[in-house]
Request: fold
Amino acid sequence: MILSDYCRNGFSLLALQTSSFMHTNGVPLDTYSFCCSSVASCSFKDVKFGAQIHSLVEKSGWLSSVFVGSALVDLHVKLSLINDAAKMFEEIPVKNTVCANALLSGYGEANQRVEGLEFVRKMRALNLKCDHFTLSAMLRACGSVID
Reply:
């Protein structure tokens, strides 16, 4: 709860310090703490720190959590590491529309519109439903491909 409050109120550094303190003192990190740490680290745009969080998630066995996986996809997108975000998406064992939309958003932000449209086709093949966010991202991609 305290990690979430720190993140929500703009105290990202405190959230990361608390998470680090918990980890170094043997407090097991869970889905909630990994998601908060990922969100907090986005504000620093630090690729090395993001890689450390990713590594810790893998070592801790939380990569199978769709929530943690989605947070890591979003982390990679916000660090402008779209290929890493796509790879992270592939590693998530149970994919959902939320993590797919995070990657789709990344393709849009990176001006990789064609890849974004191809990814939407892939979403259909994975039986992921499109929502209003997916539709909006597709329309933006179509508009820029035509230009």
In short: Residues 97 and 131 are 8 Å apart (CA to CA). The two ends are 46 Å apart (CA to CA).
